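Because showing beats explaining, we let one protein speak, sequence and backbone structure tokens together, and leave readers to judge.
___
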Amino acid sequence: MNFRIAVIKCFMLYTVFTGRAEKSEFWWFFLFTFILGVMASIIDSTLGFDQAIGGNGGVTTLIQIATFLPSIAVGSRRLHDTGRSGWWQLLWIAIIIGWIPLIMWLASKSDVDNKYGLKEVNTEDLDLN
């Protein structure tokens, strides 16, 4: 899965918390939201809005609101892909201590077929020759 497809898929599945998401889908969307956040911060600083709303600028706040649900949804689907419940995302609240296992799970290989659905066959991994 490439960057563009991952971002489009995450926004199409805006509030879908069921099913599974490949590792590449999650990390491409994470990169997209990171880049978007940096760009929004630069725009806010340039326009002088950097302290407008609770320490965030107006553009940054709008971007955070727009990407909040798809980020939670793709994180939940990614954890499902590793055989874990999406509720494990609450570990983000436990600074550092909770982040370590969560990042390890999000970066781990996909689990075989599990209670959250069948593992998608990645055609790039198949040797068709």
Summary: Residues 3-107 form one domain.
